């Protein structure tokens, strides 16, 4: 029994060590997402009268917007980088689904990093991992918009890549999604090159038709023109544009906030049709749709721009820790006539690293000397027992 007690005494420190490591890992890889996300709340709409509150909550749509997860592929992705980033995004998304329970989630493009050149086998593997990471209940709808990394920039884009993307995500390059009477227009912004390519022509034609139908519905009460009578009815609220490329802007120099572009990147002049849409394509979208709000991705940084004096555009930062230290998503409460947006940050990568480093340091500099001290004490006690005259 004495022997058992001794071996148990030797196992206890090991168990303590394992318990400590287990707790640190559990906190950094699991609990921290809850802790950080509990600070996020749905933004409230400004109401003229408290009585409106009940009506509004029923007609308000809770939407999450995220962008640029860039799931790594086989060519550029190191396996550990891939594993780590995907675990982080999966935990962040799953925690958000459980805690915030949005009705719709929009991903604004660049779901994959290598969709632009991946083989069909690599593509299938990317899609499988995406579906696992971004799984959700049937109460939430997940809608994905195409980005340049999914199908390539305009010069790399072809029918094959576009079709395989459309098939997986049930996406169309110009589509109207209406929920609770709120109109979202999904745009394939890679096809807005304006050079008359066959994909570009088809997308522009569809967008034009769509804008026509929307404008007819919005003007219907005032104007029953004959042309509009032939057009499919849509809900009459002003649409929200969702696309990957931002509308044309010179640079990010005007952007503010802790997750705006770093100062050394801010003044870099954007290349039209590469960093942002061309000036012409941007004007076309505004003229056609008169949107009340635009959300886009691609730059990986946050920004808020006002177009034509009253149309706000929000650049949604990247959702991946590979692209930034403080990823986030946008939470929107949207009604027929109003919207309110707020940002929910995910845990900072630095915080997680600091916790791991502190834990390792405490093991080396506190636990290990303590352990040594205990062993020394045990040894001297043992020696003392042995040398004691009987
Ligand atoms: Zn992009």
Automatic annotation (TrEMBL):
Membrane topology (UniProt): Multi-pass membrane protein
One annotated GO biological process: GPI anchor biosynthetic process
Protein name: Metallophosphoesterase 1
Cofactors that this protein relies on: Mn(2+)
Keywords, alphabetical: ER-Golgi transport, GPI-anchor biosynthesis, Hydrolase, Manganese, Membrane, Metal-binding, Transmembrane, Transmembrane helix, Transport
Phylogenetic classification of the source organism: Eukaryota, Metazoa, Chordata, Craniata, Vertebrata
Compartments where found: Endoplasmic reticulum-Golgi intermediate compartment membrane
GO molecular function: metal ion binding; phosphoric diester hydrolase activity
Organism: Latimeria chalumnae (Coelacanth)
Domain of life: Eukaryota
Main function: Metallophosphoesterase that catalyzes the removal of a side-chain ethanolamine-phosphate (EtNP) from the second mannose of the GPI-anchor protein intermediate. Participates in the glycan remodeling steps of GPI-anchor maturation to allow an efficient transport of GPI-anchor proteins from the endoplasmic reticulum to the Golgi.
Listed GO CC annotations: endomembrane system; endoplasmic reticulum-Golgi intermediate compartment membrane
């Amino acid at each position: 029994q004495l022997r058992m007690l001794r071996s148990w005494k030797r196992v206890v420190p090991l168990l303590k060590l394992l318990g400590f490591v287990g707790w640190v890992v559990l906190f950094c890889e699991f609990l921290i997402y809850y802790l950080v996300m509990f600070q996020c709340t749905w933004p409230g709409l400004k109401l003229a009268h408290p009585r409106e509150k009940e009506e509004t909550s029923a007609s308000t749509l809770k939407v999450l917007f995220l962008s640029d997860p860039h799931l790594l592929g086989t060519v550029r992705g190191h396996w550990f980088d891939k594993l780590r980033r995907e675990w982080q995004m999966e935990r962040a998304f799953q925690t958000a689904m459980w805690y915030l329970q949005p009705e719709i989630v929009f991903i604004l493009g660049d779901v994959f990093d290598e969709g632009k050149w991946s083989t069909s086998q690599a593509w299938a593997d990317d899609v499988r991992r995406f579906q696992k990471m971004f799984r959700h209940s049937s109460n939430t709808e997940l809608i994905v918009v195409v980005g340049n990394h999914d199908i390539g920039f305009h010069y790399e884009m072809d029918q094959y890549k576009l079709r395989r993307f459309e098939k997986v995500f049930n996406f169309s390059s110009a589509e109207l999604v209406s929920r609770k009477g709120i109109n979202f227009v999904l745009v394939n912004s890679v096809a807005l090159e304006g050079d008359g390519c066959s994909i570009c022509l088809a997308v522009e034609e569809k967008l034009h038709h769509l804008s026509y139908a929307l404008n007819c519905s919005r003007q219907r009460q005032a104007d029953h023109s004959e042309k509009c009578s032939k057009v499919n009815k849509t809900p009459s609220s002003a649409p929200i544009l969702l696309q990957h490329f931002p509308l044309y802007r010179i640079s990010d120099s005007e952007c503010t906030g802790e997750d705006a572009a770093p100062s050394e990147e801010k003044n870099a002049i954007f290349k039209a049709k590469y960093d942002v849409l061309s000036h012409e394509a941007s004007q076309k979208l505004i003229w056609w749709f008169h949107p009340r709000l635009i959300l886009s991705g691609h730059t990986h940084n946050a920004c808020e721009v006002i177009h034509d004096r009253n149309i706000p555009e929000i650049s949604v930062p990247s959702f991946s820790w590979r692209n930034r230290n403080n990823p986030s998503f946008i939470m929107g409460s949207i009604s027929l006539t109003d919207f309110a947006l707020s940002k929910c940050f995910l845990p900072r990568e630095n915080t997680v690293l600091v916790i791991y480093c502190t834990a390792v340091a405490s093991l080396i500099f506190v636990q290990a000397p303590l352990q040594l001290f205990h062993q020394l004490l045990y040894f001297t006690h043992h020696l003392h027992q042995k040398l004691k005259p009987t």
